[in-house]
Amino acid sequence: AGPRSQKQLELKVAELVQFLLIKDQKKIPIKRSDMLKHVVGDYRDVFAELLRLAAERLEYVFGYRLAELEPKSHTYILVNTLEPVEEDAEVRGDQGTPTTGLLMTLLGLIFMKGNAVKETEVWDFLRRLGVHPTKKHLIFGDPKKLITEDFVRQRYLDYRRIPHTDPVDYEFQWGPRTSLETSKMKVLKFVAKVHNQDPKDWPAQY
């Protein structure tokens, strides 16, 4: 099938992640044959690698473990590994949308960067995870609106202009609701889980 560029493979992984998240909304086991037919197409020869990368991203970004339900029939389900920040439907959205994973990822980033992080850094970080400010996302809709407006309105994040910057830049900090609903320790544990490390590996934050 000829060599593929890194960018082509990245796009396939992102497509596969979105396909799995959408399929999972219906709570019906996902067939491998559907993945091959709808997403993988002529990338069949690298399917195992694509699935491995998609599974990693699902776990790290969204807190979902891709589990094989029945090896014989090759069907998969997503298992939620995150404790929700709270049992309130607002965070998860009506469909159980996995915005909690994204929120925890952002809170973790802000915390590890010393409690404030520039918006440009946030997007650089999220782009590596397949979430772009200008592209409509199948799960989050408009990611820029979700992060700079919805999470801010819900008071999970503070979003403010950094004075004397040209071009204008903004930064994020934890909002008041975050401090009430979750602890720095919980966020540190989440970050540690993502990086496969122990919270004690970051002595300053610990």
TrEMBL record:
Residues 9-206 form the MAGE domain. One of its GO terms (cellular component) is nucleus. Keywords: Tumor antigen, Ubl conjugation pathway. Gene3D superfamilies: MAGE homology domain, winged helix WH1 motif, MAGE homology domain, winged helix WH2 motif. This is Non-structural maintenance of chromosomes element 3 homolog. GO terms for biological process: negative regulation of transcription by RNA polymerase II. It comes from Pteropus vampyrus (Large flying fox). Pfam families: MAGE (PF01454). InterPro entries: MAGE (IPR037445), MAGE_WH1 (IPR041898), MAGE_WH2 (IPR041899), MHD_dom (IPR002190).
